[in-house]
From TrEMBL:
<dbReference type="Pfam" id="PF08100">
    <property type="entry name" value="Dimerisation"/>
</dbReference>
<protein>
    <submittedName>
        <fullName>Demethylspheroidene O-methyltransferase</fullName>
    </submittedName>
</protein>
<dbReference type="InterPro" id="IPR036388">
    <property type="entry name" value="WH-like_DNA-bd_sf"/>
</dbReference>
<feature type="region of interest" description="Disordered">
    <location>
        <begin position="1"/>
        <end position="24"/>
    </location>
</feature>
<dbReference type="InterPro" id="IPR016461">
    <property type="entry name" value="COMT-like"/>
</dbReference>
<keyword id="KW-0808">Transferase</keyword>
<dbReference type="Pfam" id="PF00891">
    <property type="entry name" value="Methyltransf_2"/>
</dbReference>
<dbReference type="InterPro" id="IPR001077">
    <property type="entry name" value="COMT_C"/>
</dbReference>
<dbReference type="InterPro" id="IPR029063">
    <property type="entry name" value="SAM-dependent_MTases_sf"/>
</dbReference>
<feature type="domain" description="O-methyltransferase C-terminal">
    <location>
        <begin position="191"/>
        <end position="373"/>
    </location>
</feature>
<feature type="domain" description="O-methyltransferase dimerisation">
    <location>
        <begin position="65"/>
        <end position="136"/>
    </location>
</feature>
<keyword id="KW-0949">S-adenosyl-L-methionine</keyword>
<dbReference type="GO" id="GO:0046983">
    <property type="term" value="F:protein dimerization activity"/>
</dbReference>
<keyword id="KW-0489">Methyltransferase</keyword>
<dbReference type="InterPro" id="IPR036390">
    <property type="entry name" value="WH_DNA-bd_sf"/>
</dbReference>
<dbReference type="GO" id="GO:0032259">
    <property type="term" value="P:methylation"/>
</dbReference>
<dbReference type="InterPro" id="IPR012967">
    <property type="entry name" value="COMT_dimerisation"/>
</dbReference>
Length: 394
């Protein structure tokens, strides 16, 4: 039983090799570039030629996007909050009509509409009406993105002082919202689930489809017979997996309060007898054993190194020798090129107060220390949804 051999996958190189781009020559070149970019004389010369102007403008645009990114995000947030995109789902509308539907003064609506059009969320027609732009249409097709944008309310509140977020992890609204230290199981008795758990689990559920589609495209789950999704939430990933593998027995393990939600979802399925839901802490309680595949989908990055190692060791106990583990989550990049991992999740998890995005190489090293061998990274087609690392239980 193995990862489908036809799929491209790469053994993870040790972190000992000098990463590309850090040779003395490369550093020297960057130094020359930076000195030029900091020199007013260089700018004057560059602006005198068409090609120089082209590059200067491109660089200025990039810098402006970084400067104004927060404003762009808030325009998007306002569009989601007011129902602007849904209002345009049926077709173009004039601005007066939209102002009425969004319950906004005409001046405010005009600013939101033209801002959204400038960002590609809307298109402005020559007759003055507005319709969905390519990004707006893509957004409407992605309920997970809409749920995340709404949820950014708390995150961006914390980010009003990003330095504070970096100095004091988990000191703000986002951490309080989750009330989620990630270290211990929820102590609330079985049989009761809170609105906070429901809200959190629904958010995870809303963003799961894209992740599941990508993870199941990268990794062939068909050869496995007894699968455990650790920290499986309400079971969205496992039900997507059930469509690819129609015979395996499927186990879900999550905190007791989340397990209640999973049972509610899974018990009503016609194939409910394939699913077993276990409530407990993956740090402390016994897990189903003799599995041939354990999946950890968006779990590891929520935890600091020590508890993350603990989860991997516990996952190992659930597997028979030769069984596989699949880690699927957005990951960092050795050269910090992953915007979702190195920029977004780095800050998000700092505000949440637990965890960090890791590179595939770091995850491979942790897997080795937790009793796994042959770590492989599966080249991600859509790293913004997930990357994947797999290994074999020794
Ligand atoms: C980021 S969510 C991911 C959920 C799901 N795998 C997904 O991708 O949508 C993390 C999950 O880990 C669960 N979790 C956190 N701490 C846990 C613990 N100590 N024991 C069991 N599950 C836990 C949470 O309840 C939540 O469902």
């Amino acid at each position: 039983m193995s990862l489908s051999d036809s799929r491209p996958s790469a053994p993870i190189a040790g972190a000992d090799k000098a990463p590309r781009g850090s040779s003395p020559l490369s550093v020297r070149w960057r130094d020359i570039r930076n000195r030029a970019l900091m020199s007013p004389r260089f700018h004057a010369i560059a602006l005198a030629t068409p090609i120089g102007r082209f590059f200067a403008r491109r660089s200025a645009d990039k810098l402006f996007d970084l400067t104004a990114g927060f404003v762009y995000s808030q325009i998007l947030f306002a569009g989601v909050q007011t129902g602007l995109f849904e209002a345009l789902a049926e077709g173009p509308a004039p601005e007066e009509d939209l102002a009425r539907r969004l319950e906004m003064p005409l001046d405010g609506a005009r600013r939101l509409l033209s801002g959204s059009a400038a960002l590609g969320l809307l298109d402005k027609l020559p007759d003055g009406r507005f319709m969905l732009g390519a990004q707006g249409a893509a957004l409407l097709a992605n309920p997970g993105a809409i749920a995340m944008i709404r949820h950014h309310d708390a995150f961006y509140d914390d980010l009003r002082d990003p330095v504070e977020v970096l100095k004091i992890r988990g000191g703000g609204r986002l951490a309080r919202l989750w009330d989620y230290d990630g270290q211990s199981a929820d102590t609330r008795p079985e049989g009761r689930s809170t609105s906070e758990t429901t809200r959190y689990t629904k958010l995870m559920e809303a963003s799961q489809d894209l992740v599941a589609r990508e993870a199941l495209r990268l990794f062939d789950v068909r050869p496995f017979k007894r699968i455990l999704d650790l920290g499986g939430g309400s079971g969205r990933f496992l039900t997507a997996l059930a469509e690819r593998n129609e015979t395996a027995q499927l186990h879900l393990f999550d905190r007791p309060d989340v397990a209640i939600l999973a049972r509610e979802r899974l018990d009503i399925r016609p194939d409910a007898d394939r699913f077993r839901v276990h409530g407990g802490s993956f740090f402390a309680d016994s897990l189903p054993d003799r599995c041939d595949l354990v999946t950890l989908v968006r779990i590891l990055h929520d935890h600091d190194d020590e508890p993350a190692m603990n989860i991997l060791r516990r996952a190992r106990t659930a597997l028979a020798p030769g069984g596989r583990i699949l880690i699927a989550e957005p990951m960092a990049d050795r050269r910090a090129h992953s915007r979702i991992g190195d920029a977004y999740f780095n800050l998000y998890l700092a505000a949440m107060g637990s965890g960090r995005p890791r590179t595939p190489e770091e995850i491979a090293e942790m897997l080795g220390a937790a009793g796994f061998s042959k770590p492989r990274t599966i080249p991600a087609g859509m790293p913004i949804a997930t990357s994947a690392v797999t290994a074999v239980a020794t």
